[in-house]
Amino acid sequence: EAQVTQNPRYLITVTGKKLTVTCSQNMNHEYMSWYRQDPGLGLRQIYYSMNVEVTDKGDVPEGYKVSRKEKRNFPLILESPSPNQTSLYFCASSGGTGSYEQYFGPGTRLTVT
Amino acid sequence: SQQGEEDPQALSIQEGENATMNCSYKTSINNLQWYRQNSGRGLVHLILIRSNEREKHSGRLRVTLDTSKKSSSLLITASRAADTASYFCATHKAAGNKLTFGGGTRVLVKP
Description:
Chain A is mainly β. Helix content of chain A is 0%, strand content 50%. Chain B is mainly β and 111 residues long. In chain B, strands 2, 4, 5, 9, 10 and 11 form a six-stranded mixed sheet that branches. Chain B is globular.
């Protein structure tokens, strides 16, 4: 089954404790992206990747890191989480140039206390 | 920045009625897409309309695009309780593969 998976689905952590949210897709998609969703603000893009080893900042990259060492994986790293990063996070992928429909993962609800 | 802005923010209708929501955007686009999100879950792609298209249909969905007004509308005909969800428009610009989402319209379909 074609899908985007994220782990963990729920995470409660404390300020400053480094964490990684994993994202994996099995569709051989070139493009992957991370979004955060906050009430009243819709989805905002954090980082995106056009292909392996090619990443770029989205609209709200501060406090986040990403890497794309393999085509299928695109982890999101919070080196020193803060309470303002409490949010619902989504990973998405799409086929790349000419293929614009994005497939979303189920989401990761992160709480930073 | 939010490229698309949906209107209304919330909509409540009876089952069987039509639901219409609008999206306005600010800059030139390659295509515009509509997504559905059930409460707290991942978004699901509904339909894509390219900048050179004016209208598109998919099942009970009808999307229009007016590039001169920088606006789009999504019509759901003969709504069902299962259509209860948030609906988002997303614009895709010519360069890269970035989507920019609006704030969404929450639709409640009452049985």
